[in-house]
Amino acid sequence: MVPCAAVHVAMLADPPLVGYRCSPMSETLSRTDPMPADDALVRVRGLTTRLGDRVVFDGLDLEIPRGKVTAIMGPSGTGKTTLLKHITGQMQADAGEVLVDGRDVARLSREGLFTLRERIGYLFQNSALLTDFDVYENVAFPLRQHTRLPEELIRNIVLTKLQAVGLRGAARLMPSELSGGMARRVALARAIVFDPMLILYDEPFVGLDPIALNQVLKLISTLNQTLGITSVLVAHELAAIQRVADRVILIANGKVVASGDPQHIAQDGSPWTRQFFGGEADGPVPFHYPADDYAVDLGLKEPA
Amino acid sequence: MNARVKPRNILVDGLAQIGEAGLFLPTLLAAVPRSLRYFRETVRQIWFVGAMSLIIIMTSGLFVGMVLALQLYHVLAIFGGTASTGTVVALAVYRELGPVVTALLFAGRAGTSITAEIGLMRATDQLSAMEMMAVDPVAYVATPRFLAGVVAMPLLCCVFSAMAILGGHLVGVTWLGIDNGTFWSNMTSNVHVWKDVIDGVVWKSLAFGAVVSLISVHQGYTTPPTSEGVAYATTRTVVASSIAILALDFVLTAFMM
């Protein structure tokens, strides 16, 4: 069976060629588990995660709607990347469940998890390109691992994806020869090579100059609008998020503290949104990391 | 304020590392059937850890054989037994020096590069990226390197031993004047293929290859994703491999006697 990528390959062309239909990459998944009639592609219920003594999530509940761009925001260290790891099954929760396309990720076998991951694209913060391979081979890597497509078709798919991210001319460059923005775009081409149902972007705007940032924003928007791919963005840049996201979820203290339209969430009025979007140094997220009595540490007072 | 650095217990850390590596072995072996899909990667790794180590192995083997013959010639001369120089060189090389020195060199040359390569892949999220692309990094990265080490080590030991014998011949026959026929005939009549060559060059080398490769791959795979973590992991590979080789050599020799 030809994977989705082989027939969706033309849809990212500029202009997109519409009218293509395809089956999902994973035949087993599509045959045995029909897509549930559910507007939420990702549903998190009562997620509780502890890392050592620290509670990262304390009964977190949230939903990621299908076909939309959802931004996950929150103070540093609040567990945004950890949430992505739960969604992709890289990390197990202490309690609660994470449902992706109706399947409880924690209950999937390793094979089931890999089958699910074939339908999820993940853009790492540092791109995570395979340094031994050039740009072309990096994008071709998932195709070579999971399909037996003829070389000519692989070439067509890879070049189309690279054309979509504007880097067809860089196909034979090595990752070390790419700028940060170019590496991010190559990683994006690799992430969409199977036309996934869901793309997770971990801090996609970090370290990008305004041109590269606009290019990545355009790509996220195009992928969402052209292929209807559900996107989850973990980022801190509200101005960028306002241009691309349909919904913002603000996480702090292990819970969702605010959610809504990115144009208006900053005016929500809660102490969390006021501090986070106003950039206030102190507030619900304290300036000082928890510590013992200051006077005791300085030796001015005996410990109790 | 408690600003003390938690003291490291070297013994406990060492035992924990041995335990973790032992637990990692079944994971590696279980991934062998899946890694057969990446046969070309295994062959590439054999070339990398084997063929690329040939220069240091051949050079070291030659000089080990030369110095061994030089030392033995003068010791045996005291007893009037210089004709046995070739025999003793061969026995020392096949039984001990060949497998042990090859393994030590292999740990320094190939083991560290395996650890550093996998460690950097961990530090730059390449292993996580493979997981996210539904590619098993144990089957694609770790097991091919482990198998490559196991296959390459006996081959390298053969080359090392051949070069050592050649070095012994150069010094003993060409330089010190031992009769060429005596050198070879004494050697062939006193060195046993199964007891000396197969036990040493094959079995010991296979065991050392497995241990060094396991340590190298494990250290790389579990290294903390920092530059300091990779540096410590490569150092630990050399230290742990060296100790493991020498200790295992004693155990194997005791069983083979």
Tag the structure with descriptive keywords.
heterodimer, A: 304 residues, alpha/beta, Rossmann fold, six-stranded mixed β-sheet, four-stranded antiparallel β-sheet, 11 helices, 34% helix, globular, disordered N terminus, B: 257 residues, mainly alpha, 0% strand, elongated
* H and E order of chain B: HHHHHHHHHH
How much helix is in the residues of chain A?
A: 25-40%
CATH architecture of chain A: 3-Layer(aba) Sandwich
Coarse shape of chain A: globular
**What separation lies between the terminal Cα atoms of chain A?**
71 Å
Strand tally of chain B is: 0
Shape, principal axes of CA atoms of chain B: elongated
How much of the sequence of chain B is in beta strands? under 5%
Q: Residue ranges of chain A: pLDDT <50 for 5 or more in a row?
A: 1-36
What low-confidence regions of chain B span 5 or more consecutive residues with pLDDT below 50? 1-5
Strand and helix layout:
The complex is a heterodimer of chains A (304) and B (257).
Chain A: H1 4-8, H2 27-32, E1 40-51, E2 54-65, E3 69-73, H3 80-87, E4 95-100, E5 103-104, H4 110-117, E6 120-123, H5 135-146, H6 151-164, H7 180-191, E7 198-202, H8 210-227, E8 230-234, H9 238-244, E9 247-252, E10 255-260, H10 271-278, H11 294-297
Parallel strand pairs in A: 3-8, 3-9, 6-7, 7-8
Antiparallel strand pairs in A: 1-2, 1-4, 4-5, 9-10
Chain B: H1 10-30, H2 32-35, H3 39-49, H4 54-78, H5 85-123, H6 126-132, H7 137-175, H8 180-190, H9 193-221, H10 227-256
